[in-house]
Design goal:
alpha/beta
């Protein structure tokens, strides 16, 4: 099944064709609580809307500090964080997440990926890095792959 989602933000219409995303990939995500930490309001709103439309739980935070407050309040299965955040950066945030909740699947999103960032992410235990700009399809495929890998282990 294919979906078209229309998002109306700040007086502009943004259309996303969520193509080739199989419903079973979203169905897998319905079992998981996801936290998104990104200072980009458009990314937070867009992903929150898509997850909500698919009846998947996603909480969004703008800063690492808000993200840390969220994980103190409840346990998340998946955490997606931008690399560059105001204040504390994404790598530092995800390192704290892994210390507090080592079983959490962590994904780093960044427009600034390089070998140094990749090696730091790997050392912390981040499961994957996605480069911006990214498609919803890529994000869902990545999360689905990580979930399947986790279930095998």
């Amino acid at each position: 099944m294919w979906h078209v989602t229309c998002i109306y933000l700040l007086g502009h219409q943004f259309y996303y064709l969520i193509a080739e995303i199989k419903m079973n990939q979203f169905n897998e995500l319905k079992e998981f609580k996801t936290l998104l930490v990104d200072d980009d309001e458009f990314i937070r709103d867009s992903l929150s809307l898509v997850f909500s439309k698919q009846r998947c739980f996603m909480q969004a935070a703008e800063t690492a500090e808000e993200g840390l407050q969220a994980i103190k309040a409840e346990r998340f299965d998946i955490i997606i964080s931008d690399l560059r955040l105001p204040g504390r950066g994404g790598l530092e945030f995800l390192k704290e997440v892994k210390n507090a909740q080592p079983e959490t699947l962590c994904v780093l999103i960044t427009a600034y990926r390089d070998m140094h960032v990749a090696s730091q992410a790997s050392a912390i235990g981040i499961h994957d890095c996605i480069e911006k700009p990214f498609s919803i399809d890529l994000l869902i495929q990545t999360l689905s792959r990580l979930i399947k890998s986790r279930r095998k282990n």
